[in-house]
Write a structure and sequence with these properties.
The complex is a heterodimer. By secondary structure, chain A is mainly β. Chain A has strands spanning about 5, 10, 20-25, 35-40, 45-50, 60, 70-75, 80-85, 90-100, 105-110, 115-120. Classes of the chains: A mainly beta, B mainly beta. The interface of A and B includes residues 33, 51, 106 and 113 of A.
Amino acid sequence: EVQLVESGGGLVQPGRSLRLSCAASGFTFDDYAMHWVRQAPGKGLEWVSGISWNSGSIGYADSVKGRFTISRDNAKNSLYLQMNSLRAEDTALYYCAKEGYSSSWYYFDYWGQGTLVTVSS
Amino acid sequence: EIVMTQSPATLSVSPGERATLSCRASQSVSSNLAWYQQKPGQAPRLLIYGASTRATGIPARFSGSGSGTEFTLTISSLQSEDFAVYYCQQYNNWPPLYTFGQGTKLEIK
């Protein structure tokens, strides 16, 4: 059974940093790209960042580019998101998502339950 | 940046009836389009990928269509468990870049 368990969320002051983690199990972690998606309270989904299986390809949403850094440790089956210079608008539930693929189609087939990040003074 | 626009924002439908949800891309995304369902307090669930392929375990009453810039999710006969928020999502391969629509809330009429 695929499991994605996020951790590291919490209350943080504006301008400070936080590091999120996602522990993966139930699949061959280093075969798949992984992503972070966030959802502000009462709002829709926003893709934040993605990383290929070997960390060779990385992408970020414009809203976090230059402040957030995604990484992975395939030996530990773990995904990370380093969040610096946090702003109030970064307040959200952060989901870890596994990228699936079939033929030439890509999608998010498994999601964690999320970890809540609150940026407030 | 590709912008995904969903309509309507809220759709009120009676159980047993058909629901049709729309998603428009600001430029062609070919068939790189997925649909997700999200219920309150839950993570999203993949319904459709490649614009029209149902994900594993998704009932046949869910169907997707379209290509290019116009896409549709149809739920043929609404069940009580189908009332939720639905999101479309497009995918760009390089660099990895995904964009979600703002969502359509499907509510009981």
